[in-house]
Design brief:
The chain is mainly α. 69% of the residues lie in helices and 0% in strands.
Length: 71
């Protein structure tokens, strides 16, 4: 796989990762199936968006693109 050896540098997104981890902890009951997903998934998704999930995804993609171009 061309992605072999790739690892994300978390430094530029450490705050967003910490925020997303906190959201994950808050919504553990959803992840484990303990609540109605129709009610809680939209709240979980919105909380992740507020936490900066898009910045995490964008940074990971940017780093992967640079990695792949260097091969």
């Amino acid at each position: 796989s061309p992605k072999f050896g790739f690892a994300v540098d978390q430094e530029p997104i450490k705050t967003e990762i910490a925020n997303a981890d906190a959201v994950k902890e808050e919504y553990t009951m959803l992840i484990r199936g303990g609540v109605d997903p129709d009610e809680y998934f939209p709240k979980f998704k919105a909380a992740l968006e507020t936490a900066g999930i898009q910045a995490i995804l964008d940074e990971q993609k940017k780093q992967l693109d640079v990695f792949l171009q260097s091969k």
